[in-house]
Design brief:
Elements lengths: L8 E7 L1 E2 L2 E7 L9 E2 L2 E3 L6 H13 L9 E10 L2 E9 L15 E8 L9 H11 L4 E4 L2
Parallel strand pairs: 1-7, 6-9
Antiparallel strand pairs: 1-5, 2-3, 3-4, 3-8, 6-7
C-alpha cells in the first residue's frame, strides 16, 4: 500500500510597482485576513502552470491583461498556517494592458497604489515581509514557523 504524499498549496501573487508605489487590494468577505491589504493572488488549478494562473488571476481580480512571458519570478515564500502549508510565488511585470480595477467587489473593497515606504498598517504581515525581501533582492523566505 502506498503512502499518500504530503500536500502543499501553491499560490501566485502579482506584484506591480510604478513610481515607487505598489498596488495592493484590501480583502473583504473572504474568510481569510479580511480588512487587510495584499496583492492580487490566486490558487493554481489542475493542469495549470504558475504563469498561466497568474495571467488568469490578474484578469479575474483586477482586469489587467498580462502575458506569461512578461512575468518574472521575484520571490518564493514557504508559509505555515495553523492547518496547512503553502508555497507562495510572487511575480512582477512592467508590461500590462488596462488600468487595474476591482473586478470582484464581493472579495475586495479597496484597490490602491501605496508608497513603498508607507504601507497601510493593515497590510498582511507576511506580505510586508515579502515586500521588504523584494526591496532587498532576497528571492526566498519563510513565514509562520
Amino acid at each position: 500500500m502506498s503512502k499518500e504524499r504530503y500536500k502543499i498549496i501553491p499560490t501566485v501573487y502579482l506584484v506591480l510597482i510604478r513610481e515607487s508605489k505598489i498596488l495592493l487590494l484590501r480583502r473583504y468577505n473572504t474568510g481569510f485576513m479580511d480588512g487587510y491589504y495584499s496583492f492580487p493572488a490566486g490558487h493554481v488549478e489542475a493542469n495549470e502552470t504558475l504563469t498561466q494562473t497568474m495571467v488568469r488571476e490578474a484578469k479575474e481580480e483586477v482586469s489587467i491583461i498580462i502575458k506569461k512571458e512578461d512575468l518574472k519570478l521575484i520571490h518564493v515564500m514557504h508559509r505555515k498556517e495553523p492547518n496547512e502549508e503553502r508555497i507562495n510565488f510572487f511575480f512582477i511585470t512592467e508590461k500590462y494592458e488596462e488600468e487595474p480595477i476591482i473586478m470582484e467587489p464581493d472579495k475586495c473593497d479597496d484597490l490602491n497604489w501605496f508608497e513603498l515606504d508607507n504601507l497601510p498598517k493593515n497590510t498582511i504581515p507576511y506580505i510586508k515581509q515579502v515586500i521588504q525581501n523584494i526591496l532587498q533582492n532576497k528571492i526566498y523566505s519563510e513565514y509562520g514557523w
